[in-house]
Amino acid sequence: MSTTKWSVDPTHSEIGFKVKHMMFTNVSGQFTKFTAEATTNGDSFEVASFSFSGDIDSVSTGNADRDGHLLSGDFFDAAQFPKITFESTAFNKKNEGEYTLNGNLSLHGETKPVSLDVEFGGIAKDPWGNTKAGFTITGKINRKDFGLTWNSTLETGGVLVGEEVKLAIELQFVKQ
């Protein structure tokens, strides 16, 4: 079977995250500049490999001051660590249309193994004849595992920023 390359369609994809603020609400953000690729045997994603690279300076939470703080040395330190990357190590079927994606996530100078849940939406041709494949990816990481330790204590005894970061990713790939 021949190897097939797939490239992300950024206009139909999102790299999102949520983190607790003041212990009781979530702040959402996303990376707006990124690339992702998949390699498959033919059109089958059963043994696919995935890679991703995102520009840290494309982080957007809808608030310019917060985004500026995230880019600073308190958080991402975008000047020193301009990319977030992921390389898969395994893609295993759990149930029909459900997979576990394991790989190495590199962020802020640290590389750690992560495990993500994947829902495979299927493969279809778009109106222009392009073959597309869709995925919904979710998971959680602890930001402290990647050296993102800045916080502020609240008067109530809690902290301003939660440690757990929830990932919410939508990827649409185009067959090359």
UniProtKB/TrEMBL annotation:
Residues 5-174 form the Lipid/polyisoprenoid-binding YceI-like domain. Signal peptide: none annotated. Gene3D superfamilies: Lipid/polyisoprenoid-binding, YceI-like. Coiled coil: none annotated. SUPFAM superfamilies: YceI-like (SSF101874). It comes from the Bacteria. This is YceI family protein. It comes from Flavobacterium suzhouense. The lineage of its organism: Bacteria, Pseudomonadati, Bacteroidota, Flavobacteriia, Flavobacteriales.
